[in-house]
Amino acid sequence: MIKNVHGNTVDHLGEAIVAGRYLPGASIPPEPLLCEELGVSRTVVREAVKSLIAKGLVSSGPKVGTRVLTAEHWNWFDPDVIAWQSKAGLTPEFLRDLQDLRRVVEPAAVRMAAERATPQDIAEIEAAYEGMRKAVEEGGDYVASDLRFHQGLLRACRNRMIVQMSKALGALLRTSFEISTSRKDGPRSSLPLHRAVLDAVIAQNPALAEKAILVLIDGARVDIELVLSSRRRLPRLNEPVRMLRSY
Q: 206-230 and 92-116 helices cross at what angle (nearest 10)?
């Protein structure tokens, strides 16, 4: 997606903060310097700073300027923050936090989905599963269908707050899927696990659906730990998704 001047300015400053070029407690450069450095107007810089305040990266006040906040204040549900962290380099702590979050949210959501999913919800999740199967059998973008599958489950729980969370979780989930599917035969071996989740939701069996999604999540955790221990370079969200080759 091509961003406008405002988006590019937010990206430039956000990436610099997340990468540690501006340290917590320090002030970012004053408006005149940023205008000169980035070739933008003061209005653009001010609007960019407002965006960063909304994302929890900086605070601003009279006589203190715009100061960088610690990572505890950052909005980790903001897709931009996740993308900037990915570009700066994902950490084991970040990935483990993500797995903990999935283990808290997804099992409860899938239980509700098994009770509340509509025929339209089921059709959407089925289509996502078919996309995953096709990517494994014929090659293609497995991660996009995997993401569609899990977001479909979250929407099917019919809880407005969790549905809203599903939008924010998108970048987080993609991070996890990019890593776990980088293992040889990972996508192929995970297909029956996804099918088990879907079948339990279709059968309206909350307990079985919860058990199936926990198997899937815990398997992803093992995959991620293996990738971390191998010290291979982790994927970045600003890079193209790795396409599966056909067999």
A: 160
Length of the chain: 247
In terms of phi and psi (left: phi > 0; alpha: psi -120 to 50; beta: otherwise), the region of 240 is beta
| Residue of 130, 111, 128, 127 whose CA lies nearest to 203 | 111
- Domains contained in the chain, CATH given: 5-73 (1.10.10.10), 79-230 (1.20.120.530)
- The answer to whether 206 and 115 are in contact (CB under 8 A) is yes
Query: Using one digit for the tens of pLDDT, what is the confidence trace for 185-215?
Result: 788 889 999 999 999 999 999 999 999 999 9
Cα distance from N-terminal residue to C-terminal residue, the chain: 31
DSSP character at residue 71: G
Mapping DSSP to helix (H, G, I), strand (E, B) and coil, where does residue 76 land? coil
CB atoms within 10 A of CB 176: 24
Q: Is the pTM of this model over 0.85?
A: no
